[in-house]
Automatic annotation (TrEMBL):
<keyword id="KW-1133">Transmembrane helix</keyword>
<dbReference type="InterPro" id="IPR029151">
    <property type="entry name" value="Sensor-like_sf"/>
</dbReference>
<feature type="transmembrane region" description="Helical">
    <location>
        <begin position="21"/>
        <end position="45"/>
    </location>
</feature>
<protein>
    <recommendedName>
        <fullName>histidine kinase</fullName>
        <ecNumber>2.7.13.3</ecNumber>
    </recommendedName>
</protein>
<dbReference type="InterPro" id="IPR003661">
    <property type="entry name" value="HisK_dim/P_dom"/>
</dbReference>
<keyword id="KW-0418">Kinase</keyword>
<keyword id="KW-0812">Transmembrane</keyword>
<keyword id="KW-1003">Cell membrane</keyword>
<keyword id="KW-0597">Phosphoprotein</keyword>
<dbReference type="GO" id="GO:0000155">
    <property type="term" value="F:phosphorelay sensor kinase activity"/>
</dbReference>
<dbReference type="InterPro" id="IPR036890">
    <property type="entry name" value="HATPase_C_sf"/>
</dbReference>
<feature type="domain" description="HAMP">
    <location>
        <begin position="364"/>
        <end position="418"/>
    </location>
</feature>
<dbReference type="InterPro" id="IPR033463">
    <property type="entry name" value="sCache_3"/>
</dbReference>
<dbReference type="Pfam" id="PF02518">
    <property type="entry name" value="HATPase_c"/>
</dbReference>
<dbReference type="InterPro" id="IPR003660">
    <property type="entry name" value="HAMP_dom"/>
</dbReference>
<dbReference type="InterPro" id="IPR003594">
    <property type="entry name" value="HATPase_dom"/>
</dbReference>
<dbReference type="InterPro" id="IPR004358">
    <property type="entry name" value="Sig_transdc_His_kin-like_C"/>
</dbReference>
Length: 705
């Protein structure tokens, strides 16, 4: 901001001491910020939207180029069909088919004249046996359907090119040229040929196919297609001045057909030429040719940066053999962009200077009376009894009225100042005394409330745990003996049945599993009431097998209901858990979900990897039902021990499940919508964490609707 004082010949130290210059700065500051913001917004819009439009254009150009290649192949097929349907060919072919030796030369001469007329690089008639013996044509024969032609791209070695036409071997040979950002070539010459080849069945009079027309073009050194595409997409007026639009067909990473110039703007005796044999940059080769991906971005083309689009080319077998490229030089766009920024900046600076001058001239006369008022205020502060009216301000304006009001205020202030000072001193003493007393009472009350809440919560928890411990001990004593008898009798039954035990082996094993689950539940109850006495071993497990085992176990519990279990098991990351305890948690949640529905409905069980910052840290399990839902006032109590809304429930299932999950550091969340259903989400870490069960709802998340 220091340039404003220099413009108007004002010393900066003097300006800081004067109110009018401070107001002047505050007046000009929004203008300056607005102009600077406008510059940056314009730059951002230019970079964002202009860049996007350039990439969209070059991508559309690439689409035109690809479609042109396809149309070239379709055109080849039409050309072969015209040759086959011509009267000359039909007449010669009928004679040739009857006497092959006599008329072979005649039909070859006809095809040679047609080849030159249609601008094809080769056109010949081959028999079925010749085509079957040729490994290249054999691939195309497999794709010919009926009497329709088939076209595709093909790369041939020099020996195989010579079999078609020896002249194409010379045409295909292109010396390689290393470019600044390309990989160093492993050979000096590219002698393979890239062909657009079409094969058309030629039926005889009886409709049998014994011959094929084989024709096409060689892309090596061919400039017709790339120049045609360039003229389509980069016609005059489509690009800025000195911007060059180019199109290239690559064999592997070598330019074999291109209009990229050797010298963009030749000088002296230089010839513009074409960059045949030059290599594409290594980063483009890796992404497009090696990985088969589309490139739409800036790219270094031969010796300059271009807005470029590359796409891979595939041969008749679906193998990547090269690339096709469209693009235009980037530097003219950057030049125009910088020129626009300079023009905009110049205009904004002129606007700023003119605005500053106008604001200063208008504010000077307006702010001069304020300086007088400032002198009066300083005089009053120093103890002098000075008034603004004595300075002779002009009458009948807002500042004069303000001065009169200010003088009356000073008079009133002077009369009451002593009274206010005395009253203020007394008031400060009283306020300080009352404030100190109030703070002491407030702190005491807060401490008492906190102590009362803690005591009440501890008493409730202790009473529940005591009751649970006594109940669990009794249950364990009463149930363990019958379960032991059941297990013993099941083993005896298997022994007595002998070989016949195989018929009911699945039922016997299921009974044994359920008895084991009863024992596990008893241990979990004891663990909940006295968690320090039980340390369940933790092991690494895949989640999907545990889910599948749970589904087998709950099948009998919900078989009377028409419940559909939908599974989406996508978790793959291992977790450290106790398998029986996790089974118990999952069974509790699924059975509760089934009970929440009236006879029928759907339950979704989903698993997926738990990912944070792009790295997996564990897995998550979702169990969702379409039951009646949980009201908001009940949602915060569902994990309390002995709390249940079912007449036949114990109120321990969710409480035990919560304790099991939290003891291994996991998370459990619940959300519910009344009338729509409930969703439980369990998060389990790859490596179990320390026990986190401190209060009944620590780490819980509720979401009710």
């Amino acid at each position: 901001m220091s340039f404003f004082p220099r413009i108007f010949g004002i010393n900066w130290q003097q300006m800081q001491a004067k109110v009018r210059y401070r107001i002047l700065i505050l007046t000009l500051l929004p203008i300056l910020l607005t102009l600077v913001s406008l510059v940056f917004i314009t730059i951002y819009w230019n970079i964002s939207y202009t860049g996007k439009q350039l990439f969209m254009k070059v991508k559309a150009d690439l689409t035109v180029a690809n479609n042109t290649l396809i149309s070239v192949q379709k055109s080849q097929e039409k050309q072969l069909e015209l040759v086959m349907e011509s009267w000359e060919f039909q007449n010669d072919f009928r004679l040739f088919d009857g006497n092959k030796n006599s008329y072979r030369k005649q039909i070859d001469l006809l095809l040679d004249s047609k080849k030159q007329l249609l601008n094809l690089d080769f056109l010949r008639l081959v028999s079925v046996s010749e085509a079957a013996a040729d490994p290249d044509l054999r691939v195309m024969l497999q794709k010919v359907k009926g009497d329709s032609a088939y076209s595709g791209l093909m790369v041939l070695e020099p020996k195989r090119l010579a079999l078609i036409d020896p002249e194409m071997v010379k045409t295909a040979s292109i010396p390689l040229v290393e470019t600044p950002r390309s990989q160093k070539p492993t050979k000096t010459v590219e002698d393979r040929g890239l062909l657009s080849r079409s094969l058309l069945p030629v039926p005889d009079a009886e409709g049998n196919v014994a011959w094929y027309l084989d024709g096409g073009i060689l892309f090596n050194r061919d400039i017709r297609i790339v120049d045609h595409i360039r003229d389509l997409v980069y016609d005059k007026g489509t690009l800025p001045e000195r911007s060059i639009g180019t199109v290239t067909i690559f064999l592997d990473n070598t330019r074999i057909s291109t209009n990229v110039p050797l010298h963009f703007f030749p000088q002296g005796g230089e010839v513009q030429g074409r960059a045949l044999g030059s290599l594409v940059s290594e980063e483009v080769k890796q992404k497009v040719f090696s990985q088969g991906m589309l490139w739409v971005d800036r790219a270094f083309v031969f010796n300059d940066w271009f807005i470029s689009a590359y796409a891979p080319l595939e041969d008749v077998q679906g193998k990547r053999i090269g690339m096709i490229y469209t693009g235009f030089s980037e530097s003219p766009f950057i030049h125009n962009y910088l020129l626009n920024i300079i023009e905009l900046g110049t205009i904004l600076m002129l606007v700023l200077l003119v605005s500053g001058l106008l604001v200063y001239r208008g504010a000077y006369s307006l702010l001069q009376p304020i300086e007088r008022i400032h002198h009066v205020v300083k005089a009053v502060q120093s103890g002098r009894n000075l008034r603004i009216g004595s300075l002779g301000l002009e009458r009948d304006n807002e500042l004069s009225n303000l001065a009169e009001q200010f003088d009356r205020m000073l008079d009133l202030l002077q009369r009451r100042n002593s009274q206010i000072q005395a009253a203020a001193e007394q008031l400060e003493v009283k306020v300080e005394e009352r404030t100190r007393s109030l703070q002491e009472k407030t702190e005491e009350l807060q401490n008492n409330v906190a102590l009362l809440n803690e005591t009440r919560q501890q008493l409730v928890t202790n009473e529940k745990l005591t009751a649970l411990g006594e109940l669990t001990a009794g249950i364990a004593h009463e149930i363990n003996n019958p379960t032991a008898v059941i297990l013993g009798n099941m083993e005896l039954m298997k022994y007595e049945l002998g070989d016949r035990a195989e018929d009911v082996e699945e039922e016997i094993d299921l009974v044994i599993q359920q008895v084991g689950r009863i024992s596990t539940i008893i241990r979990s109850l004891l663990q909940y009431s006295r968690p320090g006495e039980f340390n369940a071993p933790l092991e690494m497990h895949q989640l999907t097998p545990i889910i599948e085992e749970m589904l087998v176990l709950v099948r009998h519990s919900i078989q009377e209901q028409k419940v559909i279990l939908n599974q989406e098991l996508n978790a793959s990351y291992p977790i450290e858990v106790n398998r029986p305890q996790l089974l118990q948690v999952l069974i509790n949640l699924v059975v509760n979900a089934a009970h929440a529905m009236d006879e029928e409905g759907r339950i979704w069980i989903r698993t997926y990897d738990w990912v944070q910052r792009g790295e997996p840290i564990g897995v998550k399990i979702e169990i969702e039902d379409e039951g009646k839902g949980i009201p908001q006032e009940q949602l915060s109590r569902i994990f309390d021990p002995f709390y249940t809304t079912r007449a036949d429930g114990t109120g321990l299932g969710l409480s035990l499940s919560y304790g099991i999950i939290k003891r291994i550091g996991g998370t459990i969340e619940v959300s519910s919508t009344v009338g729509k259903g409930t969703l439980f989400t369990i998060g389990l870490y790859h490596k179990a964490k320390e026990e986190q069960v401190d209060t009944p709802y620590e780490g819980l998340h509720f979401n009710g609707h």
